[in-house]
Amino acid sequence: MPKILSPFPSELSSHAKAHLESLGVQVRCQTAVTRVEGPTSATIKPLGGSTSGGGGGVTKQVTKEEETESLEFGALVWAAGIGTRPVVRNLAEAVNAQAALSSLSEKPSGKPSGKPSGKPKKPVQSSPRGVEVDGYLRVRGLDDGSVFALGDCAVSGSPPTAQVAAQQGKWLGRGLRDGSLLALPPPSVKAPPKAPGGGASREPGGEKVDPFRYQDMGKMAYIGDKAAIAQVALPSKELGAPPMSMLRDHLWWRGLHGADAGANPATAAAADSESKGAAAGVKPVERNLTGGAAFAFWRGVYFSKLLSGTNRLAVATDWLRAELFGRDVAVHQAQMHRRASRK
């Protein structure tokens, strides 16, 4: 990767890089680990671009032809990303098998036939990351639209993050609770009826049901030594939202029933005005936070998302213990250094 924390703006990414280097961390972008040799040694190779050492801020231009380098380490952490769960992979394979059988048993006119005619169609589910869904989070390839997917297992066009999964869960839960998603025309209907203002409807002339739309509330990352970076989406005048509506979404977990339009008309009006602004191409104002302010914001958001008082007490106790006695990983590293010095 050309830089660390690539989802963030270059300003925040550069700040994080400089902060890590001030702590003595060597930041090496565009570098691949080609071999792990034993428990404490690895071979790395630059892929082009630049690398920088910790502390001195020295940047060195490298090329693809440079020789490999041996790197000594105390602990190796491999961040391989997410993988498809067997149940998700089996579901995609079952959908493809069903779609293949359906296409082989149809005539070109679309009417069923006793024997195969024509070639199998392209697999409906072709993503290696999960099951593909439509705008209403329904699994593609199922004509009745009775199976929904969300979060990391769904390929919806949104990033596979916890923020997306939380919004999808709330949206899907409300739709299943009030029956609006179950009453939608099935995906097999080529031209579902439209409600006034766009979107699919329950029946001709019925209530509009908008597809899921992800709203990025911001991004946060802890970068060590009680510092963090954050990019926060703030309410904008163009969207016409009340000043505190979006901020409350950042700091407090709104329950499934408490976020209804009937329960909170102000929130419903804000969401409607935001939807109109997004449709017109207006984006919320974003503000960058760094250092101690971002760290306080990061911890506040994390603490507010905990679902029970027991979890809040456990986390608060852990933070207090770490502040007084340090982290266990630091104690473990000190023990490793003492054992190494005795040899």
What does this protein structure show overall?
With 343 residues, the chain is an alpha+beta fold. The chain has helices at residues 10-22, 86-104, 162-178, 245-251, 265-279, 291-304, 309-325, 328-342; strands at 31-37, 41-46, 49-52, 59-62, 69-72, 131-132, 154-155, 200-201, 208-209, 218-222, 228-234, 285-290. A hairpin with a 6-residue loop joins strand 8 (200-201) and strand 9 (208-209). 15% of the residues are buried. The model is unreliable at 54-59, 191-196, 201-205 and 238-276 (pLDDT under 50).
What's the layout of helices and strands?
Blueprint: H1 10-22, E1 31-37, E2 41-46, E3 49-52, E4 59-62, E5 69-72, H2 86-104, E6 131-132, E7 154-155, H3 162-178, E8 200-201, E9 208-209, E10 218-222, E11 228-234, H4 245-251, H5 265-279, E12 285-290, H6 291-304, H7 309-325, H8 328-342
Parallel strand pairs: 6-7
Antiparallel strand pairs: 1-2, 2-5, 3-4, 8-9, 10-11, 11-12
Please tell me what the overall shape is: globular
Q: What are the segments in which pLDDT stays under 50 over at least 5 consecutive residues?
A: 54-59, 191-196, 201-205, 238-276
Q: Main β-sheet, in a few words?
A: 3 strands, antiparallel
Query: Helix- and strand-based class?
Result: alpha+beta
Distance N to C terminus: 38 Å
**Percent of sequence in beta strands:** 5-15%
Radius of gyration: 26 Å
Strand order in the sheet with the most strands: 1-2-5
Q: How many β-strand stretches?
A: 12
Order of helices and strands: HEEEEEHEEHEEEEHHEHHH
- Number of H- or I-type helical stretches: 8
